[in-house]
Design goal:
Blueprint: H1 8-24, E1 34-38, E2 44-46, E3 62-64, E4 70-72, H2 81-90, E5 96-100, H3 103-110, H4 120-126, E6 132-133, H5 141-150, E7 156-159, E8 163-168, H6 171-194, H7 202-217
Helix pairs in contact: 2-5, 3-6, 4-7
C-alpha cells in the first residue's frame, strides 16, 4: 500500500496539537521545550520562541528552510531551531522532533546517566539505551550537531544538564517516544530503590533490534 502523504496544513495542525499535549501531559512547564515537523516540500514548521502553548495558534507557527531561513510566520522561531534542523538535515527518515524537559528523563540528563533498555517495548520503540549527548551550549550549532549523531539509530537522546530530545517518522511518533522514555525513566528510578536492575537477555535484544529500524522507516 502506497504511503499517504500529509498536506502542509495537516502537519502544522499535528505540531500544534502535539505542542499542547506536551504541556498538558507535564513534559514541560511554561514556554519550555519546542517541536518541529517536516513539511511535504522539505521545509520545516516549528514552534515560536517564548509563547505559551495554551494560547498558541496555527498562525503562530513558523516555517523555515533547512538552513534556518524564515519563510513564513510573524514570530521568531524557537531559539533552539538548530537542534531540530540538524536532526532533520542528517536523517531523511525523520518527520518530527520534540525537545522536552520531562522530569525523570532530565534527572538522568543532569546526572549524565543513560536510560537503560531493560523493558522489551523500550527496545522496540526507542531502539535501545537512551544515550547522553556531550554537553554543548543551548541553542548552539554545536549542540545540534552533537545531538543529531545520536539519533541515527535511536528514537531519543538525553542532552547533558538540559533535557530530552525525541524523534520519529512524524510528530505523533516522536511524542509517543517521549512518553515512553519518561515513563521508563521513572520506572528505572524507582526500581533502583528496590534493588539492582536485571538486564534483558542478549537474545531478546538481538531479536527486537531490527524492529525499531523497520518501524521508523515505515
Amino acid at each position: 500500500m502506497a504511503k499517504v502523504e500529509r498536506s502542509a496544513q495537516e502537519v502544522k495542525e499535528a505540531v500544534l496539537r502535539t505542542a499542547k499535549e506536551m504541556l498538558q501531559s507535564g513534559l514541560v512547564e511554561g514556554t519550555a521545550g519546542n517541536l518541529s515537523g517536516r513539511l511535504p516540500d522539505g521545509n520545516v514548521v516549528m514552534t515560536p520562541s517564548s509563547l505559551d502553548y495554551e494560547v498558541m495558534e496555527l498562525d503562530d507557527l513558523v516555517v523555515v528552510d533547512l538552513a534556518g531561513n524564515v519563510l513564513a510566520g510573524e514570530r521568531s522561531p524557537t531559539t533552539e531551531k538548530q537542534l531540530h534542523l540538524a536532526c532533520l538535515r542528517a536523517h531523511d527518515d525523520l518527520g518530527g522532533v520534540i525537545h522536552s524537559h520531562a522530569m525523570f528523563a532530565t534527572m538522568f540528563a543532569v546526572t549524565r546517566q543513560p536510560i537503560p533498555c531493560v523493558i522489551e517495548e523500550f527496545d522496540v520503540f526507542v531502539g535501545g539505551d537512551v544515550p547522553v549527548a556531550e554537553y554543548k551550549m543551548t541553542g548552539s550549532d554545536e549542540l545540534g550537531e552533537e545531538v543529531a549523531r545520536w539519533v541515527e539509530n535511536r528514537g531519543a537522546v538525553l542532552m547533558a544538564n538540559h533535557g530530552l530530545l525525541t524523534v520519529g517518522k512524524d510528530i505523533e511518533n516522536a511524542m509517543k517516544v517521549a512518553h515512553l522514555v519518561e515513563r521508563t525513566a521513572q520506572i528505572i528510578w524507582g526500581s533502583r530503590l528496590l534493588g539492582d536492575l536485571v538486564p534483558l537477555p542478549d537474545s531478546t535484544l538481538e531479536k527486537f533490534a531490527p524492529i525499531y529500524k523497520m518501524l521508523r522507516s515505515h
